[in-house]
Design brief:
One of its GO terms (cellular component) is extracellular space. The protein is α+β, with helices and mostly antiparallel strands and 523 residues long. Helix content is 32%, strand content 22%. The two termini are 17 Å apart.
Length: 523
């Protein structure tokens, strides 16, 4: 259940933050972008007396880093061993994007590294037609060869010995560079507070505005509004999705042929999996994918499992319609950036690989969770089909919506669960219901707002807002609505989604304070 007072502007922005990084060299140096590099010079070394820049800090971590820069447990800056390091930005604006996590923002620190270092500017280009994995492997090999690092040694950790800091061109619309500092060097630096963002939504708004992300960039982002990427989210918009699709299906095919792995999973049944079993499948499959590719997704097993379980339940419920089944599938939308970690995991050098693994994970877990019924018997075929479903829904929902298409004969619309919010006007004690229209929906689909113990209101789902104010009850009284989709197919059958949003509004304190809460219930 979430607490809403007003429909926040950042909630309806379709996109993610793009943070681009570089720094000033030396504590007193003036900020300046480096001149273009000769194309033949793939790596250029330059000694510097130190480094100064900015670092975006996630909520809850500001005091920790002010107490001292320390290598954290876990990913330590990146999911790949070769790229684990401390990342610094050139400006406060670009660092702001890194400070956001979900519906909160942390702060920004100014980082000073007062030791002599060598900056190695890397300008290795991707060849036409070169696969992302091949390019990343070639890039790492070239850097390791340059500095005499053994192939099996972690690259950034090995660069610490000679005080090497990598300078990489940022692949985004902002241009510039990012600096990757080995942890042993970073721990010798100091951090001072540059800015601390306000709590909750206000802080996210501040960080978003400070990042100077242009509207066009936001509209092209590939993560939902509340799931912003750690670094260079624009890469998410530029993903080669056909490569992601092909790689995900290839991965799915390899996993379903691994009899030892399949034997370790809870068996598919006519009833589907329990929540605990779905979680087991997610954890073991995530580990399997990491072993196969060397790329560990940023996915949260619990989130993936919850989605897959909900999808399985929809297929076992005899009362469920195709509309409900699709709604369960599209419930992955708000979790793609969080549960799957696609946007959050696209950091530094492996976007297609991360996205393909995330999509494959979702498809494999869902295929195992869906009960063995009718056309859903073949796990391999089902998983491959779900790859297409996840990618299609992800692109439709996260990017600019495509125009609504006519409803084919006998078909049902692809609709997510209703996501309404309630705006309160504290002066007139009026309120209005608005809902999410980030997906394309056929015009014939209706959104139903039904007051408990009161009237029913219906509106075209594509409208996105109830036309006209609904009068609130007296001060201190609640008003509760069920919000759901209704559609009549070409055969005349009326269907309603069983997954319903419950909106509750209360006016308090002589009308100067109103609240709205939204929850979900299954009917």
């Amino acid at each position: 259940m979430s607490h809403l007072t007003r429909r926040r502007s950042w909630l309806v922005r379709a996109g993610t933050l793009t943070a681009v990084v570089a720094v000033t060299a030396g504590s007193g140096a003036q900020l300046a972008l480096a001149a273009p590099l000769p194309t033949a010079a793939e790596i250029i070394r330059e000694p510097k007396p130190g480094l100064t820049g900015y670092h975006g800090v996630k909520p809850g971590d500001l005091e920790k880093i002010l107490a001292g820069i320390k290598r954290p447990e876990g990913d330590a800056g990146n999911h790949i061993a070769d790229w684990k390091g401390f990342y610094i930005a050139e400006t406060v604006n670009h660092a702001a994007g890194y400070a956001i996590k979900g519906k909160r923002a942390g702060g920004i620190v100014k980082v000073t590294l007062p030791v002599d270092i060598t900056i190695a500017t890397v300008n290795i280009k991707k060849n036409p037609g070169e696969l992302t994995d091949d390019f990343k492997a070639r890039q790492v090999k070239r850097i390791k060869d340059e500095f005499g690092i053994p192939a099996d040694a972690p690259m950034m950790d090995s660069l610490a010995k000679d005080r090497i800091v990598l300078k990489l061109p940022e692949e985004s619309e902002f241009g510039g560079f990012e600096y990757v500092v080995p942890w042993k060097l970073a721990e010798r630096g100091t951090a001072t507070k540059e800015r601390e963002f306000a709590p909750r939504n206000e802080g996210v708004d501040e960080a978003y505005a400070l990042s100077n992300a242009a509207p066009a960039v936001a509209a092209e982002g590939c993560a939902p509004p509340t799931a912003r990427a750690k670094r260079s989210a624009s890469r998410c918009a530029d993903l080669d999705w056909e490569t992601v699709r092909d790689e995900a299906k290839k991965t799915v095919g390899e996993v379903v042929q691994d009899t030892e792995h399949l034997a370790s999973l809870p068996e598919r049944t006519l009833q589907g999996l329990s929540k605990a079993e779905a979680h087991t499948v997610a954890v073991r499959t995530q580990a399997k994918l990491g072993t196969m590719s060397g790329v560990r997704t940023a996915a949260e097993a619990a989130g993936v499992a919850a989605w897959a379980y909900g999808m399985g339940v929809a297929f076992t419920d005899q009362r469920a319609t195709t509309l409900d089944k699709v709604a369960a599938t599209t419930a992955i939308v708000p979790g793609v950036g969080n549960a799957l970690g696609i946007a959050d995991g696209i950091e530094h050098h492996d976007p297609e690989a991360v996205a393909a693994n995330a999509v494959a994970l979702a498809a494999l877990v869902a295929a195992q969770a869906v009960p063995v019924v009718g056309e859903l018997v073949d796990t391999a075929l089902l998983a491959e089909q779900i790859v297409d479903v996840v990618i299609d829904i992800y692109q439709r929902t996260a990017a600019t919506p495509r125009p609504a298409t006519p409803l084919p004969s006998g078909a049902l619309p692809l609709l997510p669960p209703a996501k309404p919010s309630l705006d309160c006007s504290v002066l007139a004690l009026d309120m209005d219901i608005v809902w999410d229209t980030t997906v394309s929906v056929p015009d014939k689909t209706q959104l139903v707002i039904k007051e408990r113990g009161g009237k029913e209101f219906t509106y075209p789902a594509s409208a996105g807002k109830a036309p006209g104010w609904l009068i609130a009850k007296g001060i201190g009284q609640d008003r509760t609505f069920d919000v759901f989709y209704r559609v009549t197919n070409d055969q005349g059958k009326t269907l309603e989604s069983s997954r319903r949003a419950v909106v509750k509004q209360t006016v308090k304190d002589a009308g100067f304070y109103c609240t709205a809460t939204v929850s979900q219930e299954s009917w």
